[in-house]
């Protein structure tokens, strides 16, 4: 069967990913609601802490997944299943080894949990709970490599549908069991093994769809050399990313207590849902981009990057405004006003989210072009800056949650905000990065204007929390569309985006 055009596949994947994320959107909040009301805020803080600790342990994969995915684009474009079989066998063997290493590291860290938990060590079955999370994280590596093959082949929608079905099924069982038994261990087990179940079904689909063979051939030396270089670069990028994001709960638990971790985790739930939505959209087009750069010139690839970066900004723009102006109302309606944090910290969460995720498309292009080998020193800079500034704000100035957020923002601005685009433009496009930063600061100006408009109008909105939330949501929707439209009128990026909207509209009409 002839494969659909690249643009059609990208549109399909983006549409399905977006639709599935909308259906998944309530799940995180439903899950968190039952977790808090039946198991308590201490359990919430513990699970957030364990998730962050295991994110650190997941460094065991050293970024190998992204490095190997880079090798899949060309054989998939040529439908070279012999070479795909070699790469996927290599991939499977490495990931099984990683699963074992991660489990061993988790067992090693088990006796040291008390240093992170403090007084919370008295929570029942706390060690068993950690082991359940550890088993779930380690098992997720056993079959996850098959998802990478589908992403590289622009078949993301398959993963999205399978994930949706499994998530709803497991959530239904979770809710039933937590109401009936109020057992934190059973609830945790159902939660952490959802990813493993998804990977099982994805593997069954891949085995049926792709004629991969059991080969004894080894990866050629040139590919191994490229892989090793990118693995090293991805390793530093991954360590840096984990230290900047996933250690927040660990710092908070050590300096402010596990209850603060739980309060912060509620807002992280909101930002994580939004980030997953954005990630799904970027992943949906990554396979098409990988296919595009194999066939097109560097100049055409740069133009595509600029157009996609504008779409990334439009989504991020709405997300930033929503987090900034709606978070406290959502928390109040969702789990109660006592779980609300200060407006300053909400602002810092929104700012941190903006700066971190403006780079999201850049991460994708670095992976697609295999440029991770150039990121080593930059990632080290980010790690050192984040740890230094976070400790400064939390320990020297006793800023607690504010210190964690300021540490993330400061380290991001001083390092990878400018380093990532430099790598992409210099090594992928062979062009000057100045145009990127012109648009970067132009977009910041747009966001500032939007914030000023919303702040000016918000006092005129109804005070009833539900009406306030609805009217503010409508205001954000209007402002986040109208202002960028005016500011980009006549520019290539807007024409490209409107063209996508037209094609989606035509497909829906037909």
Characterise this structure.
This protein has 510 residues and is mainly α. 82% of the residues lie in helices and 0% in strands. It has helices at 6-39, 41-57, 64-77, 81-109, 113-117, 126-139, 145-152, 156-181, 184-192, 194-209, 221-246, 248-255, 258-295, 298-334, 343-357, 360-369, 376-396, 401-414, 416-429, 434-457, 465-487, 492-509. Helix 3 packs antiparallel against helix 4. The protein is globular.
Question: Could you say which overall geometry the principal axes of the C-alpha atoms support?
Answer: globular
Radius of gyration: 23 Å
Q: Largest sheet, if any? A: none
Strand content: under 5%
Low-confidence stretches: none
For the termini, the CA-CA separation is 22 Å
Helix content: over 70%
- SSE order: HHHHHHHHHHHHHHHHHHHHHH
Integer average pLDDT: 80
Per DSSP E runs of 2 or more residues, the count of β-strands stands at 0
Supply the helix-strand structural class. Answer: mainly alpha
Number of helices: 22
């Amino acid at each position: 069967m002839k494969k659909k055009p690249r643009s059609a596949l990208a549109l399909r994947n983006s549409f399905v990913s977006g639709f599935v994320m909308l259906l998944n959107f309530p799940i995180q909040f439903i899950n968190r609601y039952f977790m808090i009301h039946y198991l308590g805020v201490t359990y919430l803080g513990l699970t957030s802490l364990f998730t962050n600790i295991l994110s650190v342990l997941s460094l065991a994969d050293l970024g190998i997944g992204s490095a190997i995915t880079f090798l899949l684009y060309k054989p998939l474009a040529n439908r070279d299943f012999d070479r795909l079989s070699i790469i996927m066998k290599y991939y499977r063997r490495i990931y099984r080894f990683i699963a074992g290493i991660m489990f061993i590291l988790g067992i090693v860290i088990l006796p040291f949990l008390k240093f992170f938990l403090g007084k919370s060590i008295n929570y029942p079955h706390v060690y068993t709970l950690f082991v359940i999370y550890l088993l779930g994280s380690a098992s997720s590596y056993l079959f996850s490599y098959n998802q990478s093959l589908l992403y590289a082949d622009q078949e993301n929608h398959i993963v999205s549908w399978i994930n949706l079905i499994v998530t709803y099924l497991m959530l239904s069982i979770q809710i039933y069991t937590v109401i009936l038994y109020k057992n934190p261990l059973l609830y945790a087990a159902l939660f952490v093994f959802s990813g493993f179940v998804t990977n099982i079904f994805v593997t069954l689909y891949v085995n049926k769809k792709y004629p991969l063979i059991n080969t004894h051939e080894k990866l050629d030396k040139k590919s191994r050399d490229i892989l090793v270089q990118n693995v090293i670069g991805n390793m530093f990028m991954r360590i840096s990313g984990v230290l900047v994001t996933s250690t927040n709960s660990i710092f908070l638990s050590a300096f402010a207590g596990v209850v603060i971790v739980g309060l912060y985790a509620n807002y992280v739930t909101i930002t994580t849902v939004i980030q997953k939505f954005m990630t799904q959209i970027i992943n949906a087009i990554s396979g098409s981009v990988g296919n595009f750069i194999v066939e097109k010139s560097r100049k055409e690839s740069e133009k595509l990057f600029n157009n996609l970066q504008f779409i990334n900004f439009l989504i991020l723009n709405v997300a930033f405004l929503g987090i900034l102006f709606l978070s406290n109302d959502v928390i109040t309606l969702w789990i109660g006003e006592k779980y609300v944090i200060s407006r300053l910290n909400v602002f810092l969460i929104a700012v941190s989210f903006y700066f971190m995720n403006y780079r999201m498309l850049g991460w994708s292009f670095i992976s697609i072009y295999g440029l991770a080998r150039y990121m080593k020193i930059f990632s080290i800079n980010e790690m050192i800056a984040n740890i230094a500034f976070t400790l400064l704000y939390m320990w020297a100035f006793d800023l607690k949650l504010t210190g964690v957020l300021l540490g993330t923002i400061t380290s991001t601005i001083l390092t990878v905000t400018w380093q990532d685009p430099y790598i992409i433009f210099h090594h992928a496009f062979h062009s000057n990065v100045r145009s990127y930063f012109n648009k970067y600061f132009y977009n910041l100006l747009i966001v500032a204007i939007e914030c000023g408009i919303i702040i000016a109008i918000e006092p005129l909105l109804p005070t009833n929390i539900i009406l306030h939330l609805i009217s503010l949501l409508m205001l954000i929707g209007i402002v986040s569309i109208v202002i960028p439209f005016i500011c980009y009128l006549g520019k290539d990026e807007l024409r490209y985006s409107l063209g996508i909207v037209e094609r989606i509209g035509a497909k829906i009409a037909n």
